[in-house]
Design goal:
The complex is a heterodimer.
Chain A (H helix, E strand, L loop, with lengths): L4 E2 L13 E6 L5 E4 L9 E3 L6 E2 L4 E5 L6 E3 L4 E8 L5 E8 L18 H10 L7 E3 L3 E2 L8 E5 L10 H4 L4 H11 L7 E6 L13 E6 L7 H8 L8 E3 L2 H13 L5 E7 L7 E6 L4 H4 L9 E5 L6 E3 L11 E6 L5 E2 L56 H10 L2 H6 L11 H6 L6 H16 L1
Helix pairs in contact in A: 3-5
Chain B lengths: L2 H12 L5 H11 E2 L16 H31 L7 H5 L2 H33 L6 H11 L7 H15 L13 H12 L1 H4 L9 H4 L11 H6 L8 H6 L11 H13 L5 H23 L10 H4 L3 H6 L3 H8 L10 H21 L7 H35 L1
The chains are: A alpha/beta, B mainly alpha.
Chain lengths: 449, 399
C-alpha cells in the first residue's frame, strides 16, 4: 500500500541559477580525491600507499571499526598524495587519473537468485557499502544490523537541487537491478518517494513501496519521509540510499564494474550557464566547472546551499553530492542593514521584510549572516518550517547541554543534521543548528550505541 | 576613505581587546556586519535580533507619543475639569506635548542611558557582544511607570532590574523574569508611595499636595477599588484619555501595536488572545458572583467585582501587559500549546489580583511575573506530551 504524503510546514527557498536541462559530457578530470571526512564516523585504515597504481574499484582504505567496509578508488590511476592534517589524520587521497580507464572486475551477478548474505558480501567486497547510510545518527550503515526498512528519496526539494527525474532518466534497468539486490537486505519494505506528478523512472520498478510526496522543502529530505511513513523508534535501524548511488549498485550487478560517473547539476547565480554535467565522484572542482564559473568573490559549495560543504576550485566533488552551487560571498557591510526595509532577501517574518509579497520571486542570496550570533530568543518560528512531530528548539537545547535522556526522549534518534537546515536558515539568533545536531548525534552514538 | 572603510579598520584594530564589544555595538548599529557563513547553511534569512527588537520598538512608538500628550492633558484637565468636555480639541496641543517633553522624555533617556551603560559594562567585563534585549526593555520601562517617578529612583530600579533580572542569568535570552517588569516590581516594593495612590498619576499632583492648588488624579481602578463613581466615558477608557502609567492608557493604540506585532509575526497572537480571554473569564466570574448576590454593596471588593467584564480589558495595564509584556519570548512559554495556557492564566490571575489586592488595585505585572516563573513548568508538561507519544509508539511495536 503506498501512502501519499503531503506536508504544509516548510519553506521553499527559491534562488536564481537553476540548472538548465542539458547535460554536458565533461572529459576525465586530471585529479580525483577521496576524502574520508565524507564518511562521517569512519576512521580510515590506508591500503593504497603514495605511488601505488590503482584500478577503478581497487580499495584505497577500509574502516578501522569493520574491515569489511571498503572504500574504492573512483578512477584508475596513480595515488600521488595522501594529504594529512593534524595528528596525521588522513584528509584526502589524491589520484592522478590515467587517460584510459581500467576497471576491476567483480563479476556480474543476478541478485534475484542470491541470498541476503551473498548480496551483502558482494556489496561489501565491491566497495559499495559506503553508499548505504543508516538512521539513527546519519552515518555509514553497520553491516551487522538488520534494518527494519530501507528508504530512498527520489524527490529533491532542496534549493536548486538536481532534478532526479532528469538525472536518472533511462536508467530503469540499473535501478531495477539495484532494488532487487537492496530489497534482500531487509525483512521490511523498501520505501521510495517520488514527486506527485512525476513521470518517474521509479514508476514501474518492482519490489518497492512507492510514495507520492508533495509540499515545500524539506519534503525531499529522507528524514521527513521516514517520519511520515514509518518513524524510527528507540532500537530501530533504517537504511537510506540516494538514487544516484543506486545507479552505481545497479550497474555493478549488471556489468561487474564500478562506474562512479554521475550527472551533476551546476547551480547558482555565479555560474554563467547553470546546467548538468557528467562527472565522477571526487573530481577536481575546477575541471567540472571549467569556464563556466564567475570566480569573483564566489562561494563554491559541493552540495546545496543548506547542507553542502564549502570547497575551493582546487577542491574536489564530495562523495555523496550530485550538485555544485556557486553563490556570491556576502563579506560586505550594509548601511543600517538591520532596520531598513528589505526586498532582496528571504524572510519568514514580515519585519520590514517583503519576501512574503512575492512568493514566486527568485532571489540571489549571498553568504552574509545578516546579523550576529545570539542566544535563543524568538520562539515559535522554527515550528513553522519543521514538519517532524517534535519540538525543534527544545531538542536543540537538549543537544547543546548534552542531556542524553532528553536527547533520546525528544526525538534524537529520528533526526539528521540536514533536518535542521531550514531552522538554521531562518534562525534569528544565527545559531549553528546542524553543527549542534551533528555533535549531539556523535555523542549519542558513542554513549548509547 | 569612506566611513565604512574607516570603521572597518577601527574594528580590526580593536579586535580581541577589552573594548571590542563596546565598539562593535556601535558599529553594528550603523552597519550590518560583514560576517559570512561558515559550516552549516551557506545562506541565512534576513531577520536578526536587532530587526526583531526594532519592530517591537516601532510598535511602542504610538503609545509613547500618546503618553506624551496625555501627560500634559491629564495635568491641565486636573486643574481645569472643563477641558474634559471636549477632549479632542484639548488633547493634541503643543502645551500638552511640552509637558510630555519635559516629563516623559527624561524617563526615556534615563531608562536607556542607565540600562545601556550597565549592558556595555557587562559586555566588556564578560567579553560578549552587547545584546539587543535592552532596546525593548528600555522603551517599555518609561511607559509603565507613573509620570512623576523621580529619575534617580528609575535609575536605581533599572540597574537592579538589568543586573538581577537579566545579567546574573547570562544576559538576553537566559533570563527567567521579564526585565522591564522586574524593574517595575522593584519600584513598586521599594517605593510604594510613589507607585500608587491618587497623586502620582498626574504631573505635579505630588508637589501641590496640601496647597490651595492641590489636584488629584485618581485612576479608574483606584476609584473602583474605593467604590467611587468613575467620571470617564467608555470612549475615554478605550482611547486612553485617562490617568495611568505613562504609555499604557490607550487600549486603542496598544491594539494597533498588537496588530503590528502579530502581522510581522514578531509577537505571539496566541498569548495576546488568550490573555484577553483569561481576563474576560475572570471578569465574568466576578460579575456572576455579584449577580448572584453573594457579596453586597458594602463589601470592599464590590466596586471592582461589579465592573463589567469587558471594561476590565480596557482599564489598568491589562492590554499593555498582554501585548508587550506577556509576549516576551524569552520569559514566556515557548511551545504553542503552552502559550495558550500561559496567556490564559496571566489574564485570569491579573483580574483576580486586581480585585483582591488591598494595597494596590492592579495585578497585571504581578501576574506576568508569576507566570514567567511557571512558564518552564507549563512547557515541560506540553513537551512531555510529545515524549509520551513517542514512547507509546515504541511500546506498541515491542509489545
Amino acid at each position: 500500500m503506498s501512502k501519499d504524503i503531503r506536508i504544509k510546514k516548510g519553506l521553499d527557498i527559491k534562488l536564481v541559477g537553476g540548472a538548465e536541462k542539458t547535460t554536458k559530457e565533461t572529459s576525465l578530470s586530471s585529479f580525483y580525491a577521496i576524502q574520508p571526512e565524507d564518511f562521517h564516523g569512519i576512521t580510515p585504515k590506508l591500503v593504497a600507499k603514495e605511488g601505488a597504481e590503482v584500478k577503478t574499484g581497487d580499495t584505497l582504505f577500509y574502516s578501522k571499526s569493520d574491515e569489511r567496509i571498503l572504500f574504492p578508488s573512483p578512477v584508475s590511476g596513480k595515488v600521488v598524495e595522501v594529504v594529512r592534517g593534524a595528528r596525521r589524520k588522513v584528509l584526502a587521497i589524491k589520484i592522478a587519473a590515467d587517460p584510459s580507464q581500467e576497471y576491476k572486475d567483480f563479476g556480474s551477478k543476478e541478485a534475484a537468485s542470491m541470498s541476503s548474505e551473498e548480496v551483502k558480501d558482494y556489496l561489501l567486497s565491491a566497495g559499495c557499502w559506503p553508499f548505504i547510510k543508516q538512521r539513527p545518527y546519519d552515518v555509514v550503515a553497520n553491516p551487522n544490523h538488520a534494518p527494519k526498512a530501507i528508504f530512498v528519496s527520489a524527490y529533491a526539494s532542496a534549493p536548486l537541487a538536481a532534478d532526479i527525474e532528469y538525472t536518472l532518466a533511462g536508467k530503469e534497468a540499473e535501478l531495477q537491478a539495484a532494488f532487487t539486490a537492496v530489497g534482500k537486505l531487509t525483512e521490511g519494505k523498501v520505501h521510495v518517494s517520488i514527486g506527485k506528478n512525476a513521470n518517474s523512472p521509479f514508476s514501474d520498478i518492482k519490489g518497492i513501496e512507492l510514495h507520492k510526496v508533495s509540499g515545500p522543502h524539506p519534503i525531499g529530505n529522507v528524514g521527513t519521509q521516514i517520519a511520515h511513513i514509518d518513524p524510527i523508534n528507540k532500537g530501530d535501524v533504517v537504511w537510506v540510499i540516494s538514487p544516484q548511488d543506486l545507479l552505481v549498485i545497479g550497474e555493478l550487478f549488471l556489468t561487474g564494474k564500478l562506474n562512479f560517473t554521475r550527472t551533476v547539476a551546476l547551480t547558482g547565480s555565479q555560474f554563467s550557464k547553470p546546467q548538468y554535467v557528467t562527472a565522477i565522484a571526487g573530481a577536481l572542482i575546477a575541471d567540472v566547472t571549467a569556464s563556466n564559473l564567475v570566480n569573483d568573490n564566489t562561494r563554491i559549495i559541493s552540495g546545496n546551499v543548506l547542507s553542502g560543504t564549502q570547497v575551493k576550485e582546487e577542491g574536489f566533488l564530495r562523495y555523496y553530492d550530485n550538485q555544485i552551487t556557486a553563490i556570491p560571498e556576502g563579506d560586505d557591510y550594509e548601511f543600517f542593514g538591520w532596520n531598513k526595509p528589505v526586498f532582496n532577501k528571504i524572510s519568514t517574518s514580515r519585519a520590514l521584510t517583503f519576501s512574503w509579497l512575492t512568493p514566486n520571486k527568485k532571489y540571489d542570496l549571498n553568504t552574509n549572516t545578516n546579523g550576529e550570533h545570539r542566544a535563543f530568543v524568538v520562539t515559535g518560528s522554527y515550528e513553522n518550517v519543521f514538519p517532524l512531530d517534535m519540538y525543534p528548539m527544545q531538542l536543540l537545547k537538549a543537544f547543546m547541554v548534552k542531556d542524553l535522556d532528553e536527547m533520546e526522549a525528544l526525538g534524537g534518534y529520528e533526526v539528521a543534521p540536514e533536518d535542521f537546515a531550514l531552522t538554521e536558515f531562518i534562525c534569528v539568533s544565527k545559531q549553528p543548528h546542524q553543527q549542534i545536531i551533528r555533535e549531539g548525534l556523535d555523542l549519542m552514538r558513542e554513549e548509547l550505541g | 576613505m569612506s566611513l565604512k572603510q574607516n570603521l572597518h579598520n577601527l574594528k580590526e584594530k580593536y579586535k580581541g581587546t577589552k573594548m571590542a564589544p563596546a565598539f562593535n555595538a556601535i558599529h553594528t548599529f550603523l552597519y550590518l556586519p560583514n560576517e559570512v557563513t561558515h559550516g552549516g547553511t551557506h545562506i541565512k534569512a534576513a531577520d536578526d535580533l536587532k530587526r526583531t527588537m526594532n519592530i517591537v520598538i516601532m510598535a511602542l512608538v504610538p503609545c509613547l507619543l500618546f503618553g506624551m500628550f496625555n501627560a500634559g492633558y491629564q495635568h491641565y484637565a486636573a486643574i481645569d475639569g472643563s477641558l474634559r468636555a471636549n477632549v479632542l480639541a484639548n488633547f493634541f496641543t503643543f502645551d500638552n506635548f511640552w509637558i510630555g517633553i519635559i516629563k516623559v522624555l527624561p524617563l526615556v533617556i534615563v531608562s536607556y542611558g542607565v540600562g545601556l551603560i550597565v549592558e556595555f559594562i557587562f559586555a566588556v567585563i564578560k567579553g560578549h557582544e552587547v545584546e539587543e534585549g535592552y532596546l525593548v526593555t528600555g522603551m517599555l520601562v518609561p511607559l509603565i511607570v507613573p509620570i512623576d517617578t523621580p529619575l534617580w529612583m528609575l535609575a536605581v530600579a533599572v540597574i537592579f532590574g538589568v543586573v538581577i533580572g537579566k545579567e546574573v542569568f547570562g544576559g538576553t535570552g537566559m533570563n527567567i523574569l521579564n526585565p522591564a517588569l522586574t524593574i517595575r516590581a522593584f519600584l513598586f516594593f521599594a517605593y510604594p508611595t510613589w507607585m500608587s495612590g491618587d497623586k502620582v498619576w498626574v504631573y505635579d499632583a505630588v508637589n501641590r499636595t496640601g496647597t490651595a492648588d492641590a489636584i488629584s488624579g485618581e485612576t479608574i481602578l483606584g476609584s473602583y477599588a474605593q467604590n467611587q463613581e468613575v467620571i470617564y466615558s467608555n470612549w475615554d477608557k478605550f482611547a486612553g484619555f485617562i490617568p495611568g502609567s505613562v504609555g499604557e492608557t490607550s487600549t486603542l493604540l496598544i491594539l494597533l501595536g498588537a496588530a503590528i506585532l502579530v502581522f510581522t509575526k514578531i509577537g505571539s497572537w496566541r498569548i495576546i488572545l488568550s490573555t484577553f480571554i483569561g481576563a474576560a473569564a475572570m471578569g465574568i466570574i466576578f460579575n456572576q458572583i455579584v449577580a448572584a448576590d453573594i457579596i453586597t454593596e458594602s463589601s470592599k471588593f464590590y466596586g471592582l467585582m461589579n465592573t463589567v467584564w469587558w471594561e476590565h480589558l480596557m482599564i489598568g495595564g491589562l492590554a499593555f501587559g498582554a501585548v508587550f509584556m506577556a509576549t516576551d519570548p524569552v520569559t514566556g512559554s515557548q511551545t504553542n500549546k503552552g502559550k495558550w495556557i500561559y496567556g490564559f492564566l496571566i489574564g485570569f490571575i491579573s483580574i483576580m489580583i486586581r480585585v483582591f489586592n488591598p494595597a494596590y488595585p492592579e495585578g497585571v505585572f504581578l501576574a506576568i511575573l508569576l507566570m514567567n516563573v511557571f512558564a518552564p513548568t507549563i512547557d515541560h508538561y506540553v513537551v512531555q506530551g510529545n515524549v509520551k507519544k513517542r514512547l507509546t509508539r515504541t511500546n506498541v511495536k515491542t509489545a
